[in-house]
Structure to design on (377 residues):
């Protein structure tokens, strides 16, 4: 059994050939030579591509190293999320979604309702998600840690309860990545993620994926991708595969620095509501410690400053941190999350994504920016 780092640098690579690159370049093709019957691994560019196939194999190795699994990659994380929900739910089914999840989930919930799917919502963690389940539930959607609140739910316990009612379970694993958490090993049917974030980690790719162990479920998701054409470009797929080799290094570094930053923020009187699942007294820590792998609790820290203007001064004063959305990149980013609307957060709520900078430098920059923001009151 190999470790995460060894697996990541070799995942999805073809057998070595003399004078050939370890990771072949992207294949740009709309069609392929196809004599005779319309069958084979590569027939048309909307169905499959050798570059996608290598990436899909690699992600499967990371998400499910101990059991066979299939991955389907998409043009974005929302493409992957929509594919699971819309390929599995039918009129009359009930979907249970997180009320505190990614901000585009409500828009997708409205689409489901327009198709005759009943939608219930419940906050991540506690008993609310469990009590939302009943015998009409077709699919339970979990997001853990949640974005941006960083709450955590018990994947294994909820999966067992959902399966007992005949429901499928999907987990948005974006924040944790397969290095930090493996939902399929905890009983989920689908592990779904936006590869735009930490998986690729360089802020230069839009990508999503779905991994599952059941071939029939994978076929349904793949069929949805083909029907709606939500396919990734070969260059994006190749860049994503290239990035996997450093995923464990990035995840480890970012998680350690995020925990250090969260601890430093706790000492600031103007900072409230500091959240990071790695903090021993964080409400999410007991569950996170039982299902997140190797003490890797993610790169995101959330906290609240005293109002919109104070938060804007803080963001402007940062020198090593970009004021940008998204998370998981090698360059730290932070944003006042309320500027987008759709999240139930205070005006001064900050979602901070820790990058790969030197921890001491990053913490010092944040503390200096906090001083400048406070002095501006």
């Amino acid at each position: 059994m190999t470790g995460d780092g060894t697996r990541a640098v070799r995942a999805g690579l073809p057998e070595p050939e003399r004078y050939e690159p370890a990771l072949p370049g992207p294949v740009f093709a709309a069609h392929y030579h196809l004599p005779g019957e319309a069958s084979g691994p590569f027939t048309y560019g909307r169905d499959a591509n050798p570059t996608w196939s290598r990436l899909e194999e690699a992600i499967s190795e990371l998400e499910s190293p101990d059991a066979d699994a299939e991955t389907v990659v998409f043009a974005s994380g929302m493409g992957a999320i929509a594919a699971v929900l819309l390929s599995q739910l039918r009129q009359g089914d009930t979907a249970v979604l997180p009320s505190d999840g990614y901000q585009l989930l409500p828009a997708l919930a409205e689409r489901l309702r327009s198709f005759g799917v009943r939608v219930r919502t419940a906050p991540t963690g506690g008993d609310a998600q469990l009590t939302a389940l009943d015998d009409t539930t077709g699919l339970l959607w979990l997001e853990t840690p949640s974005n941006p609140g960083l709450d955590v739910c018990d994947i294994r316990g909820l999966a067992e309860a959902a399966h007992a009612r005949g429901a499928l379970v999907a987990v948005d694993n974006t924040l944790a990545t397969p290095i930090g958490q493996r939902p399929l090993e905890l009983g989920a049917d689908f592990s779904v993620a936006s590869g735009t974030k930490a998986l690729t980690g360089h802020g230069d790719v839009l990508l999503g994926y779905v991994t599952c162990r059941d071939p029939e479920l994978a076929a349904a998701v793949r069929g949805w991708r083909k029907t709606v054409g939500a396919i990734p470009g070969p260059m994006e797929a190749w860049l994503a595969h290239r990035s996997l080799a450093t995923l464990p290094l990035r995840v480890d570094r970012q998680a350690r620095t995020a925990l250090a930053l969260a601890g430093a923020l706790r000492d600031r009187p103007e900072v409230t509501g500091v959240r990071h699942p790695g903090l021993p007294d964080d409400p999410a820590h007991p569950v996170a410690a039982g299902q997140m792998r190797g003490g890797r609790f993610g790169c995101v820290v959330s906290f609240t400053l005293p109002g919109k203007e104070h938060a804007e001064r803080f963001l402007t004063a940062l020198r090593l941190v970009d004021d940008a959305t998204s998370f998981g990149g090698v360059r730290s980013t932070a944003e006042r999350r309320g500027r987008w609307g759709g999240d139930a957060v205070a005006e001064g709520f900050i979602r901070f994504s820790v990058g790969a900078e030197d921890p001491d430098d990053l913490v010092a920059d944040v503390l200096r920016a906090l001083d400048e923001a406070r002095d501006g009151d």
User: Anything to note?
Assistant: The radius of gyration is 21 Å. Residues 247-265 form the longest helix (19 residues). The mean pLDDT is 95. DSSP finds 13 helices and twelve strands in the chain.
